[in-house]
Specification:
alpha/beta; three-stranded parallel beta sheet; 260 residues; six-stranded mixed beta sheet
């Protein structure tokens, strides 16, 4: 079995990135972060890949950071090193031009939930457990979790999750809005691939522009975001794919999107 911390499998238009440190429950360290950047480079550079799935090897999706490594760090050196690395990675994933899907196979705690908050679609195995337990270690989420969760969940629910450090069952995670749905463990990857295949049939160019519109608009006042949407849909209407989709509808045939 390979010891590479990140595995990348490409099947047609769908790539699957697997965090492969099962002996540590896929805890994130600097080497794993750098390997994830390398995998993202490959996916970004391949126009045939239209959707990226994230999952974990073994019993965990990501069970957090390397606690021994965190305990060895203090203040400014931590901010300049590991914190900078993981913030850069998660922001890159959040704004990645291709749609992302989390296939959560087990524990997604701390950094695992923080990564999930940066993914577009989140599918949970019925064996998954989510949470931000950093408070029990005398810490709080520091990989973007405090800021992303309050933008995605009601503030009172986000605070309860962070203040208590309690783990959430899959059904609880869906009920508060952290994930899309729960599926039987054995059906997890099939469900993720089915969703990915459905998305991969759409225009990669329009998906890219849609994702940019959503990401950029989330950081704008509504008035500016609406103007931004108007400008972006103008770009879409200047694409071959937009006219292919409309023509296919009028001609009662399936559209063939080329990304132009």
């Amino acid at each position: 079995m390979t010891t590479d911390p990140i595995l990348l499998d490409v099947d047609g238009a769908i790539a699957t990135l697997t965090i492969n440190r099962p002996e540590t429950l896929n805890a994130l360290d600097t080497a794993t972060i750098q390997a994830m950047h390398g995998a993202l480079d490959k996916v970004a550079a391949d126009p045939a890949i239209r959707v990226l799935i994230f999952t974990g090897a073994g019993r965990a999706f990501i069970a957090g950071g390397d606690i021994a490594d965190l305990n060895s760090r203090q203040g400014l050196p931590h901010y300049q090193e590991f914190a900078e690395d993981i913030h850069t990675l998660f922001r890159r994933i959040e704004t990645f031009d291709k749609p992302t899907i989390g296939a959560v196979n087990g524990f997604a705690l701390g950094g695992g939930t923080e990564l999930l908050l940066a993914l577009d679609i989140r599918i949970l195995s019925d064996k998954a457990r989510l949470g931000l337990p950093e408070i029990t270690l005398g810490l709080f989420p520091g990989a973007g979790g405090t800021q992303r969760i309050i933008r995605q969940l009601p503030l009172c629910r986000a605070k309860e999750i962070m203040y208590t450090g309690d783990m959430l069952t899959p059904d609880e995670a869906v009920s508060v809005g952290l994930a899309n749905r729960v599926v039987p463990h054995e059906a997890l990857m099939e469900s993720a691939r089915e969703t990915a295949a459905k998305i991969a049939q759409k225009s990669p160019l329009v998906l890219k522009l849609l994702k940019r519109t959503l990401s950029d608009g989330a950081d704008m006042p509504l008035s500016a975001a609406l103007r931004h949407e108007q400008a972006m849909i103008g770009l879409v209407l200047d694409s071959a794919d937009a006219h292919e989709g409309c023509s296919a509808f009028l001609e009662k045939r399936a559209a063939t999107f080329t990304g132009r």
